[in-house]
Write a sequence for this structure.
């Protein structure tokens, strides 16, 4: 087994949790969006407030 730093182990653990959760959300649009956002945060490429629609009334 290859030694990994704690941050690499944490990264892998979160990625595995996202993969396991994907089977549970099925085709729920909100669930898929939440998993996509979690993955983007994990990979550090999420634009803050991306896709957020603000009410203008």
């Amino acid at each position: 087994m290859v030694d990994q730093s704690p941050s690499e182990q944490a990264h892998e653990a979160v990625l595995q949790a996202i993969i396991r959760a994907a089977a549970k959300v099925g085709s729920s649009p909100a669930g898929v969006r939440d998993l996509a956002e979690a993955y983007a945060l994990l990979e550090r490429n999420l634009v803050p407030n991306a896709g957020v629609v603000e009410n203008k009334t």
